[in-house]
Design goal:
alpha+beta; 3 helices; 10 strands; about 10% helix
Length: about 230
């Protein structure tokens, strides 16, 4: 049996075709669109800001951060939980890496602040468990493809920071999948604390209600600014 390679997608979509540039360097202040069900990677230099926009208010963004100098260092939700003493990041909080360094800091959140740091990204196996018999677009493959599109390979599939995803955690530890409570046009802004590569996936989940009930997965938008 062949060894598992985390960088190889189980299927492909337009994520391979919609990179901001060959190396992921964006035009400053240009607004980019992430196609529904796809992912994009963007380089953000230290001190610059990344704004992620939820046009519909319903769309979840699976969000990852990799250190530009070494993609083996990446955002780690388990390390974030330890650093914050919480599973709910808020404005002013840093996103910790697996080396316990701050990769980016949340500087603005226009939503009510309901996001998820507990649930793994959807992947091919997850959709099989949900009853899909054919390939279904998924966030794990969107991450892989977004990095491939700028000439890189995913070293792992870290747990994502699920922007706007609503997963209530009860006192007994149980969780549930609920529609987002964000509103159209909500934004999150992150300041890069070192040179990073941010990857965003417009989550294609349409089996559970994480992107809303009876709502097709939609687009996301983003831009990078000096401040």
């Amino acid at each position: 049996m062949a060894s598992f390679d985390p960088s190889i997608p189980d299927g492909t979509n337009r994520s391979l075709e919609i990179a901001v540039s060959a190396d992921g360097v964006p035009e400053m202040e240009r607004t980019y669109t992430i196609d529904a069900r796809c992912g994009v990677a963007v380089r953000v230099c230290a001190g610059k800001h990344l704004t992620v926009i939820n046009p519909s208010g319903n769309q979840v963004c699976d969000f990852w951060i990799f250190a530009a100098a070494d993609v083996g260092e990446y955002s780690s939700m388990e390390h974030l939980h330890t650093a914050l003493g919480s599973i709910f990041p808020k404005v002013g909080d840093g996103v910790a890496s697996n080396l316990r360094r701050t990769l980016m800091t949340i500087t603005k959140d226009t939503s009510v602040g309901v996001h998820d740091t507990v649930i793994a990204s959807c992947d091919h196996a997850r959709y099989q468990q949900l009853g899909c018999t054919q390939y279904h677009d998924n966030c794990a493959d969107n991450l892989r493809q977004a990095l491939i599109a700028i000439g890189l390979k995913a070293p792992a599939i870290p747990a994502p920071f699920n922007l706007w995803m609503n997963v209530p955690v009860q006192a007994d530890g149980s969780t549930s999948f609920m529609p987002p409570v964000s509103k159209p046009g909500d934004q999150m802004v992150f300041r890069a604390d070192m040179d990073v590569i941010a990857v965003m996936s417009a989550c294609p989940q349409d089996v559970t209600p994480v992107n809303g009930v009876g709502v097709a997965p939609g687009i996301l938008k983003f831009y990078v600014t000096e401040s």
